Amino acid sequence: MATMRATVFHGKDDIRVEEIERPRAGVGEAVIRVTLTTICGTDLHILRGEYPVRPGLVIGHEPVGVVEELGAGVTGYEVGDRVLVGAITPCGQCRGCLSGHAAQCGHGEGYEALGGWRFGNTINGAQAEYLLVPHAQANLAKIPDELTDEQVVLLADIASTGFSGAESGGVRIGDAVVVFAQGPIGLCATVGAKLMGAALVIGVDGDSNRLRMARSMGADIVLDYREVDVVAEVKKITGGGADVTIEALGTQETFEQALRSLRPGGTLSSLGVYSGKLHIPYDAFAAGLGDQRIVTTLCPGGKERMRRLMEMVKSGRVDLTPLLTHTFSLDQITEAYALFGERRDGVMKVAIKP
Amino acid sequence: MATMRATVFHGKDDIRVEEIERPRAGVGEAVIRVTLTTICGTDLHILRGEYPVRPGLVIGHEPVGVVEELGAGVTGYEVGDRVLVGAITPCGQCRGCLSGHAAQCGHGEGYEALGGWRFGNTINGAQAEYLLVPHAQANLAKIPDELTDEQVVLLADIASTGFSGAESGGVRIGDAVVVFAQGPIGLCATVGAKLMGAALVIGVDGDSNRLRMARSMGADIVLDYREVDVVAEVKKITGGGADVTIEALGTQETFEQALRSLRPGGTLSSLGVYSGKLHIPYDAFAAGLGDQRIVTTLCPGGKERMRRLMEMVKSGRVDLTPLLTHTFSLDQITEAYALFGERRDGVMKVAIKP
Amino acid sequence: MATMRATVFHGKDDIRVEEIERPRAGVGEAVIRVTLTTICGTDLHILRGEYPVRPGLVIGHEPVGVVEELGAGVTGYEVGDRVLVGAITPCGQCRGCLSGHAAQCGHGEGYEALGGWRFGNTINGAQAEYLLVPHAQANLAKIPDELTDEQVVLLADIASTGFSGAESGGVRIGDAVVVFAQGPIGLCATVGAKLMGAALVIGVDGDSNRLRMARSMGADIVLDYREVDVVAEVKKITGGGADVTIEALGTQETFEQALRSLRPGGTLSSLGVYSGKLHIPYDAFAAGLGDQRIVTTLCPGGKERMRRLMEMVKSGRVDLTPLLTHTFSLDQITEAYALFGERRDGVMKVAIKP
Amino acid sequence: MATMRATVFHGKDDIRVEEIERPRAGVGEAVIRVTLTTICGTDLHILRGEYPVRPGLVIGHEPVGVVEELGAGVTGYEVGDRVLVGAITPCGQCRGCLSGHAAQCGHGEGYEALGGWRFGNTINGAQAEYLLVPHAQANLAKIPDELTDEQVVLLADIASTGFSGAESGGVRIGDAVVVFAQGPIGLCATVGAKLMGAALVIGVDGDSNRLRMARSMGADIVLDYREVDVVAEVKKITGGGADVTIEALGTQETFEQALRSLRPGGTLSSLGVYSGKLHIPYDAFAAGLGDQRIVTTLCPGGKERMRRLMEMVKSGRVDLTPLLTHTFSLDQITEAYALFGERRDGVMKVAIKP
Do D278 and C273 touch (CB under 8 A)? Predict the structure, then answer.
């Protein structure tokens, strides 16, 4: 039996790098040798027991690698191809996918809430030497030779998610946009809003390091919620409210401020993962009569999405490498989790090299 | 001084038909002699002190009439023209209107939440012998000769609002749609969902009379919330959740059920007027990751909207006259309010003839 | 070697029912036993040598059948399931499909113009006892027990195509729509425009039988181009031009009239298959400055599309059985082609039972 | 009688700066003192007799000025306000405007093809000391103090038109876009495509100066049609065809190349003004089955559009001043026309100061 090293979740605050069985590709599947991956905020939720996954699962969902094995029915690829795989791996053939909601993939049949998110959630994930990719035909995106692993690894989740905040919000040329929270996802939402033509992007956070990063990634104005009344300030700057607000954290406070910062007819685009109850104060919501919209989006995946995002990197329009502040080997991954979880040393994202 | 009879709000539970000054048309305005109007659920909220307007205001916002006077700058109309005027009277020239959000009209300049709703809210309304129409050029819709007042009066608000529930929800051919509450607005949402091609429209209410009406207006299935677990039933019927749900009441319970009845990727289209806090249970909301949308819409107004709705009546596709269950003169309007408020005698909507 | 009877194209005006090898299902494929199919106008073009396909090909692309064999990797189906398969069989996993253009399917990789249309075009088709279905997971749509083969067979192509004329045209509540040509596709476009809320649908043709059928399928007005100046008449009826016009034939004359019948800001939705050059007279096109759009659509396929269309039949909103005017066995198919090609006996569509 | 200097069209090749009567503001109108304007390619068509206007008309449609007089009913402005007025001056209150097609404005009632374009077309225009602005409430856009006249004058037409090429084309993050012709409108389309997130913008022209300008305004690649087979090159670079192509000239050749350069499912966004017949070769058009769209757009106007574009300049995202290569006084305007018409001295746009 061939084995591999992998990051296995055993329970709350207990992940270990272990030797486990190496996966084999079945019909329509592929196995890739992972050359670069990273840790996501969601992985921290899993580690802390806040998002439940089954013990024994390999975690991680942002893989760059090389094709090692191709299952029956997968065509147009060769062993050795360098590929990027999105965090979300739609089948392309179920009701969810065929309806344009690939992130709610039903794996061949109906649809399932969050069903497209499988890596490190319902099947083994990317923080390992090898990774089984389901529905490989729809999910292996070849990496152009001129791009490095580091240039593309953050496209798998944070760029795809962050940009979708602006896309689902329908940002238009001339819009004023506010992005609440400037962690990796929020920074990518800031970048996405600029890419779509916003005249003004206001980044909000309470961490000076992140606000500095927001400025350097394109925010026109940054607001520190520790220092100003964000809603009042947004209304003043925008002359009554933003066209689009993007929530990139998942708390009642940021959600409510995002709603209160909207103009009538505006859109709140929500990326956060919420727990507990969310309250919508009716006064913030124009009593339901303000022609406002609340839209939610789970990271768009699939190889065409990845291809498009790599095109943005190739033409120099997007460069997320400044976010990769630290590098670790797979065997050092518990150190990496600690650093990332405690936000030490100005960490934004960590590169993990199996 | 010319006078007229009008329904004046004096305070909670106190409206009176009185003789007041008749309006004159200023620049860009018109005065119409009201020939038919009706009472809206919102008027009941005003009467009960639940929605604040200033004492002394004439209420009502659904006018059919005849042009009596045209102000300077209004062209293409003549005294004597029969016209329908929407409940919402956009100016067409402010930032809100020019952005496609005419219901959030700023009256020439910026925008204002609910700003397009003026009749019986911020200026004198339609339950009177004469009515001053602001921005007349944008709001006087000529009534085709072949249509009666009764055939068009319900287009001003309830048809425009109800249909917009389906329109903002983006109903498509083949959709399964649930409409929560089958009062006048909800019934029109039911009609609207059918008009846009829904395969299945499920009407929900707890009033047998309204459920019967829902069936006769086109609902394929009706559910009585007193008898069945609506969310479970919807999920069973639709195989996992509706594509679009329309909330037409404005309560926590209906909002929450509308959210829980959605499939991943579905849209909740909200028409209700909410008070207090709304709660969004995170489990009903797929933790914010279900690609779901919540959209709100205030009644679309303006003469082009009214023209389009009258075309639907003209071609026989829409007939709302069955909803006009009772008729009163203006002087009997307090009786009409009582009947309508208490939902006596199977009342759906009342016709008021000044 | 197992064999089957099939309709084989040998060259211009030469099709024969022959005994050929029965297909076997490979990875991701299925074989169905065809229980009902029909002949399409496109098949006539093939027979007449106007649309080139390779000699030896089995033609036909509208299959209803029963699953006979399932290839590796196809899940959720069983031998014996009754299924409808769309004329277009997208893979769901290529660049075209993942971009929302499934009819331009690249079969796993990029995209290809018309690539989704394979049956009877680039692979063996449906006028046979057995049919190999590629990408079966994305294309086998189970037929609800309560629906007969006859009720669903016309969904595979003509309903899906005809309705898409209205969908791509963006028909809205209150629109005036003109449909040029009232053959099977045009009639379905007429039905589709009504389903989406058009106030007025005008059907145009020069065949009295088809104009009668148009009226019975929902056209509010029919115009016989042999008797009236269609463009002038449309402009008069609509007060300046239609919101949407649908071209369902594929000739210069109908295309040009569809363009001239549009209002400024209107949309020409084209379904026809054109040959030779199309001319756009600049005066018909407002010199390119009328905010008009020309959109083209190839029949949407895939199992979710078929499921949605079957829902419309199930709820009684769509009934296309009146179009199935004649029935033939597979062995009589050359007679069926003759009748259909010569438009004898008021034929609209023929049912072929293998 | 107060008089003013103005550029009057007298017939083919005959424009003269003359002393004519100064306009007065009627109801809903304003008069501005023009401080800066420019010459448009359309003005050249008028001068050459290629686009017919009535002799005696003052031409020009790109005005920056100061409010001199406000008619009855215009509110929220004061004499002395610096304003930008779009080339298109919608009323906001007709069927065209209320349907979202403000450029096809019907001046209070229905709609009219190109009806929103009035300055220098159907009413006196901007190449004069004073200008009467119709529907002033919808069209006077106050200029922020920090912006100069030169920074905003090109927004009135060329930026609004050029950007709309990308907007109507639906450019998305990751798209490959080709812009045919790199004159002022085409350059703005190039800028617009970048603003909306195109990964790759290819600029096409046959003038080396314009190709250089295209590069400096953001084109990733420029193609000289004198040197390469543009369609073949686009297909090679994009791997099969562009997502969006923008036609910014108005000739058969550029239109046809724009169509041939599209991928299946792509959109041709046309800005050009065409004369004579346009031919659509059916092979370039996938025989009408390629899910392709052709969209046309006339310059969006109105004060909200101008406000949004000025926000883009204010935040530094758009700077069109490099296009203002020459400056003339109003009395030198015939020299300016000559220079601009002959494309001498690397002229892109000329500033005219009354």
Answer: no
Res D154: pLDDT: 98
DSSP secondary structure of A154-182: GGTTHHHHHHHHHHHHT--TT-EEEEE--
Distance between CA D230 and CA D234 in Å, rounded? 6
Q: Which residues in chain A come in under a pLDDT of 70?
A: none
B225: left (phi over 0), alpha (psi -120 to 50) or beta: alpha
ipTM value: 0.97
What pTM, to 2 d.p., does this model score?
A: 0.97
Minimal Cα–Cα distance from D308 to chain B, Å? 10
Q: Which two tokens stand for residue B171?
A: 């109903």
For residue B348, CA distances in Å to B44, B156, B323 come to: 14, 16, 5
B233: number of Cβ within 10 Å: 18
| Domain-wise residue ranges, chain A | 3-157+299-353, 162-296
How much is the pLDDT for D242?
98
- Alpha-carbon gap, residue B118 to B114, rounded angstroms: 9
Domain B162-296 has CATH 1.10.287.130: no
Residue B125: how many other CB atoms lie within 10 Å = 29
CATH of domain D161-296: 3.40.50.720
Closest CA to D187 of D156, D235, D154, D233: D154
Smallest CA–CA separation between C175 and chain A, in Å? Answer: 23
pLDDT in tens, C192-231: 999 999 999 999 999 999 999 999 999 999 999 999 999 9
* Three-state SS at A260: helix
Q: Which residues on chain A are in Cβ contact (under 8 Å) with C137?
A: 91, 93, 108
CB pairs under 8 A between A and B: 146
CA-nearest of C198, C236, B136, B302 to D99 is B302
Q: Are the beta carbons of D305 and D87 closer than 8 angstroms? A: no
Tokens 């990774």, residue located:
A131
- Residue C342 CB neighbour total at 10 angstroms: 9
Q: Which of D175, D155, D174, D157 minimizes the C-alpha distance to D269?
A: D175
Partner residue opposite C293 with nearest CB, options D114, D117, D293: D293
CB contacts, 8 Å: A167 with chain D: 172-173
Neighbours of chain B (3+ CB pairs under 8 A): A, C, D
Q: Is residue B133 very low, low, confident or very high in pLDDT (cuts 50, 70, 90)?
A: very high
The single residue listed with the structure tokens 């370039």 is D284
Q: Which of B104, B250, B286 sits opposite A291 (nearest CB)?
A: B104
What pLDDT score was predicted for residue D102?
A: 95
Q: Does domain C3-157+299-353 have CATH number 3.40.50.1970?
A: no
pLDDT in tens, D106-163: 999 999 999 999 999 999 999 999 999 999 999 999 999 999 999 999 999 999 999 9
Specify the pLDDT at position B283.
84
Write the pLDDT tens digit of every residue in D52-64. Answer: 999 999 999 999 9
Which amino acid appears at position A27 of this protein? V
DSSP state letter for D88: B
Nearest CB among B114, B277, B285 relative to A289 is that of B114
Q: For residue B76, which residues of chain C lie inside 8 Å, CB to CB?
A: none
User: CA-CA distance, D61 to D67, in Å (whole number)?
Assistant: 17
Q: Is the pLDDT of residue C318 over 80?
A: yes
| Nearest C-alpha in D relative to A171 | D196
Angle at B100 between CA B94 and CA B106, to 5 degrees: 25
The terminus-to-terminus CA distance of chain B in angstroms comes to 20
Backbone phi, then psi, for A218, in 5-degree steps? 125, -5
Residue D276 has pLDDT above 80, yes or no: no
Domain C163-296 classification at class level: alpha beta
Tens-place pLDDT, residues A270-302: 999 988 778 888 888 888 999 999 999 999 999
CA-CA distance, A182 to A204, in Å (whole number)? 7
